[in-house]
Amino acid sequence: MKKLLLFTFSTFLLSMNSEMSAQIILASEDFEDATVTYTLVNEDTGSPIGEDISEILVEDYFGRVMLSDFQPSDDINYSNIQGTSFFGAMDMDGIASYGSMQTGSLNWNNLDVSTSAIATVSAFFAEDIDTGGSPYDWDPNTQVLIQVQLDGGGYTTVFALESTGTGFNNQAAVDTNFDGLGDGTLINDVLTELMVMVDVSTASTIDVRITMTGLNAAGEDVAIDNVTIVGDNTLSLDGNDLKPNISFVNPVSDILTINSPRYTVTSVELYNMTGAKVTESASNELNMSSYAAGIYLAKVSFLGYNRSSVVRVVKK
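RE: above sequence
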């Protein structure tokens, strides 16, 4: 079973960027021109579709848009757009050419991850804030998902934006435990970058899709910008240049012990699936007995060596 790691972009990985340079850009989409890297699918029928913003003046659209496409009375005020255009969706079931579509998706298919250990999918997300009536419009059936498929083995949801309430007209937020209710980072009209990491160490290809469901009432919307999919081989022992110099038992029951025949381990920092530092140790041992089972990342530092090693740790 594949192991899935979820982070927000502003946390642990950003601070360690200089240490993780062995990256391959698998796909990148800025929505700025007609040269696109994705395909669109009506998930209700499984059929490919084209963009349709012909009804944008009545706020029914699914495709690349600019703020200037809207009427001033629409009161659409996204900010932090990463250029002039972004991908937008609102009231998809009202678009005549789609036949009351409930779920549409952006798709990147057959990306080569044969030399990567981790694939990272990042994107900017926003929901418009209404100035009249309810400021937010997501209902319990509204969701935006990032799903991945490894080697054609079926799609798995690895990231979810959901309504924060069980009633109507709620703000969207990251669903950290995939229970259908947003309980994490809140989404507003400022496009905010979020990311998800997927273990692809045993896969050859990955398919990535962003699905949008239930944007089917007045004002229910999402904006997406700058989607990037990156392969990285430095987030595992197999791709780490310090592999010959460290060893440890994985999975861990109680004590994580990092051994190195060549270097002295000076510290071990442990990060959880939200990207937050859980604990740290000023030695080569770290007590994990009280932590929940799951996947963690450990940053290992060495005396007289100016790079750290990042290893995946499984707590059982």
